[in-house]
Amino acid sequence: MPEPDAAVLERRAEIVAAMRAIVPGEGVIDHVDSLRPYECDALTAYRQIPLVVVLPDTVEQVAAVLRWCHANHVKVVPRGAGTSLSGGALPLADCVLLAMARFNRILDIDYADRVAVVQPGVTNLGITRAVEDAGFYYAPDPSSQIACTIGGNVAENSGGVHCLKYGLTTNNVLGVELVTIEGDIVRLGGRTLEPAGLDLLGVIVGSEGLLGVVTEVTVRILPRPETARALLIGFATVEGAGQCVADVIAAGIIPAGMEMMDKPAVHAAEAFVQVGYPLDVDALLIVELDGPATECSHLLEEVESIARANGAVSVRASVDEQERVAFWAGRKAAFPAAGRISPDYLCMDGTIPRRRLPDVLTRMRAFSAQYDLGVINVFHAGDGNLHPLILYDANEPGQLERAEAFGADILRLCVEVGGVLTGEHGVGVEKRDLMPAMFSETDLAYQERLKSAFDPGLLLNAGKMFPLLHRCAELGRMHVHGGAVPFPDLPRF
């Protein structure tokens, strides 16, 4: 992470006092013991206690905090529920950590227009709970939906098991209220599908807190489908499961969800939730179809036929809603299940073309042997979004470093086969220094120019997304003194 600004650290008492003047009462946390819960997010391998934590109650307080920090050149790191798996909410030693947990109200639900207006601290599942009695739901459903907040979903463009048919967060957000680093309050998008002006909303969703602080989100809510049924399909080989995925999509069938788990993941999940997963298979597919009952029954038969043609050794269809939910319970519990078999793990996130699934899984097994670390695989098979869980023990010297190198090789492999570095977890600090593997210097420069248009002082979520050495060059320009650049022995991106 960037070296903390010594001048800012020396002004800590002044900064804390200024924050207390803006957010009175218990809205400012500055005691070191009380700051520790904020020292990391779900990427727990990296930790840093922030300078101070501020919990605003109102949009006006958010604007005042940002305006003061801008005027006094103090960095700000926005934080939601802290479930980021890429270190997106990792604090800095010289930052104001702006925690949005108190923005937890649902402001409006409009069933006629099929929208809900919520504050960023509302949990993902909380939206569905608020509208389900009327027969509606919010489609994106990341595995952490019980805890993750809609503000964090917007920051990372989160997905979930149903993103294949219903899209990621960006496909389900219609508008946001945003506070800029200068303290201006702006609205992007709204309740309509095609608002006027430049599509800056598409820039904000997935911007990882680098461009502004979201204080309100308008999301699309959908009617519950008439029927939803799931198939649990076991394969003797990963290759057969991968080909089945490709053949289902090629047949014009778009399932509501299509997830794959390899054998170690199946065993870990079944031991944890005991939902009846077959343990004698090398790969397990969960395929969900939804819509009218007749259509679901027809598509279930079509998918089963495709699966059998690809060597499926077991096929089981859910008979009721309870069993369908149970099928998904194992998949959604795969991450905590991994915690039962390994002291620590890194959850990676990369996306590849579906047809390359067998090749990539074979290469990952080779990496596992090379680094002498276990790996289990769960992923959104329908769109090729991989989530390898690299198993390691942080108490064993060198294992964290090997796990990081293993993860970097997986992400480089994703790019090599035509994929991307991230599908839904974001870049954060985890993938920051791998960005040059995917983007040219020109690509990065244009992204940085966009960042600078919103945040010219580079105060928002500093140290994230852009490779540090590249960022230090300030859009590729390097100060030269006496014919030499600083640190000439270091490689430049």
Automatic annotation (TrEMBL):
Pfam families with a match to the protein in the record: FAD-oxidase_C (PF02913), FAD_binding_4 (PF01565)
Cited InterPro entries: FAD-bd_oxidored_4_C, FAD-bd_PCMH, FAD-bd_PCMH-like_sf, FAD-bd_PCMH_sub2, FAD-linked_Oxase-like_C, FAD-linked_OxidoTrans_Type4, Oxid_FAD_bind_N, Vanillyl_alc_oxidase_C-sub2
Span of domain FAD-binding PCMH-type: 46-224
Cofactor: FAD
Alphabetical list of Gene3D superfamilies matching this protein: 3.30.465.10, 3.30.70.2740, Vanillyl-alcohol Oxidase, Chain A, domain 4
Keywords, in A-Z order: FAD, Flavoprotein, Oxidoreductase
Keyword hit for Cell inner membrane: no
Record bears the keyword Flavoprotein: yes
The name this protein goes by in its record: FAD-linked oxidase C-terminal domain-containing protein
Organism: Sphingomonas humi
Lineage: Bacteria, Pseudomonadati, Pseudomonadota, Alphaproteobacteria, Sphingomonadales
